[in-house]
Structures are given as C-alpha cells and as structure tokens.
Amino acid sequence: MSRARDRADGVLHNRTHEDTEGGRESILTFKGEQSGGEISTLAQIQASHDGTSDDEKADLIFKTNDGSDGASPTERVRIDSEGNLGLGSSSPTTYVDGSAGSTLVLESSGTDRGALVFASECTGGANEILGLINFTDTANTTSNKRSAAIRGHRGSGDANAYLTFTTDNTERMRIDSDGNVTMPLQPSFMVQLSTIQTNIAINGTRTVLFDTERFDVGGNFSSNTFTAPVTGKYQLNVELRLDSVDSGATYYHLYLITSNRTYHTIMDPNFTFDLSYHSISTSVLTDMDANDTAYVAIYQAAGNAQTDLNQDSNFSGILIG
C-alpha cells in the first residue's frame, strides 16, 4: 500500500503593488546572539523585482554582514533575471557585450580586486591540471564538445607552473613559468635544395627548386611554393648561395614573388674576375590572404649560363599575426 508524500512549501508574499527596481521584495533574515547577548543580523537572502516594467522579472540577492553593517548586511552575490551572476556587483549585465547569454562578474570596491581562484592539492604530481576554463558546445548531439580551454598546470616543481591554450582538444599555445610563449602548431616552414641547381639559364626568370623540407608545420609547402593557410602577416626569408658567379653578367635579380606583390634584391657582379661563390638574400614582412602563394626565382641578365644554386640555399617563413 502506497502513501502519498506531502510537500510543505514556504511562501514569502509581498502584497504591495509596484513595478520599481528592487520592489516587491521578500527578505529572509538570519540573526544570532553575541557572547554579551547582543542580537546581530548575520545575513539575508532577498528576492525582488528586476527592472521597472510591469513584468515578472526578479533578482535573487545574497547579503552578509562585514562586522559593521548593523541590521543592513552588504550585498555579496546577485543573480539577475537573465541568469547573470555578480560577485560584488549589483549590475552584472553592465559587463555583457550585447550578445545573449549568462555572465559572471567579480567586482570589488576601491583598490580591492576581483579574483577567480582555482585551487588544487597537486596530488597528481608534475604537469597536473590545477584548474581550467572550458568553452563547451552543449548543443553537440554526440557529446559536450570542449571547443576551447585554458588550463593551468603544475610543473615539475613548486615554482614552474604553466598555462596551455587548446582548441578542439589540441594544445595550440603554452606560456611557461619564465614567460616564454610557444605555439607548436603555428604555420611555418624551412626548405632547401636537395641537389645543386646547375647552370641557371640567362635572360629569364627561373624558379628556385626548393624540394627538401627541414620542417613544414601545417603542411603548407609543396612544389616549390608556400600557400598561406589563413589571412595574416608572414615573415619570409630567402638566402641563395650562388656558385661560379659570372662577372660578365649585367646583374643578378633575386625575386620573392607573392600573390600580392613581388619583392626583389639586385646584385651587380662588377668584379675583376668570376667568383667561386657569393650569397644574395632578402627578408620581408608581407601580408597574405588565405590561399595566397609565395615562391622564389632568380634572373641573370646576360653573361654565361654557368652559375649554380648551391644546396645551402634556403627559403623559410612563419605566420606572426
């Protein structure tokens, strides 16, 4: 035989007809007695109207006595009608950027500072996560996908903690205890020649055949060409070692050719005799759009087709912002 369970509801009902901010309030007060018998107001929980419209919006406010508040404890926490949470702030919506959603605000008065603290006893040893902030897609039907996260880690000792920044559960950036910033997946490359490119033809622009990768983070270099994966500013560097330099040539032109513009360096081989070797280089900070390309070419005006490009020649680049 089953028996229905009774439920007791406690209701605080303010019967004043009003639409003012903070009106229609109901307050639950907690009191106690000091050693001398004095009655003190310790804390209060207040529910009241949020705004000045004729609607049902409400704030829930928590107050505590700082030791000198008397019968009027100080507000510490407020949850407004939109779900914004203010710690020390009576108007957490002030800090919202205009988009819909919930906001947590920590506000202090005067020279005091708001603080969000993540604490751990570090029982897991080196590299243990001390605290993290997750940005999660709860609409993902497969699982709650952590789209991005910031994690604080304990290092191998007490004084070498570090931060990691991840997207799609992959670390993208790290700041160590000395302030060093590493971005292991930042698009970058360095390439060289696998063999000497011999007897460069004269009076024409010749592509430098960079076919050996020292590294290619992101896999954006192929067929002598770098392709920008995203729009940004790229630092590009070229150094060509020329062997058997022809003093009879009018000039040598080094070209760094991007989709937006061509950068060039010129050398006048006005020597008294041919050189066994000579280097020519250029470095630029250039703007590139996603899928723009960059490659290197050389032009020898007149003279003999005797100049070689040595394997020490190299082409490198990195996205910097």
The CATH class of the largest domain, by name, is Mainly Beta
Tell me the quaternary state. Answer: single chain
Low-confidence stretches: none
Order of strands across the biggest sheet? Answer: 1-2-3-4-5-6
Strand content bin: over 45%
CATH fold call of the largest domain:
Jelly Rolls
The global form is elongated
Named CATH architecture of the largest domain: Sandwich
Report the end-to-end length measured between terminal Cα atoms. Answer: 72 Å
3D structure, described in words:
By secondary structure, the chain is mainly β. It has three domains: 26-106, no CATH class; 129-182, no CATH class; 188-319, Jelly Rolls, CATH 2.60.120.40. Helices cover 0% and strands 46% of the residues. It is built from no helices and 23 strands. The chain has strands at 26-33, 39-49, 58-64, 74-79, 85-87, 104-106, 129-137, 145-153, 162-167, 170-175, 181-182, 188-192, 205-207, 212-217, 221-222, 225-227, 232-245, 251-258, 262-267, 275-288, 293-301, 308-309, 314-319. The strands form four sheets. The chain has a six-stranded mixed sheet, with no helix packed on it. Strands 12, 14, 17, 20, 22 and 23 form a six-stranded antiparallel sheet that branches. The chain is elongated, with a radius of gyration of 34 Å.
Short characterization:
With 321 residues, the chain is mainly β.
Jot down its keywords.
6-stranded antiparallel β-sheet; 321 residues; mainly beta; 3 domains; elongated; Jelly Rolls
How is this fold's topology laid out?
Blueprint lengths: L25 E8 L5 E11 L8 E7 L9 E6 L5 E3 L16 E3 L22 E9 L7 E9 L8 E6 L2 E6 L5 E2 L5 E5 L12 E3 L4 E6 L3 E2 L2 E3 L4 E14 L5 E8 L3 E6 L7 E14 L4 E9 L6 E2 L4 E6 L2
Parallel strand pairs: 5-6
Antiparallel strand pairs: 1-2, 2-3, 3-4, 4-5, 7-8, 8-9, 9-10, 10-11, 12-14, 12-23, 13-21, 15-16, 16-21, 17-20, 17-22, 17-23, 18-19, 18-21
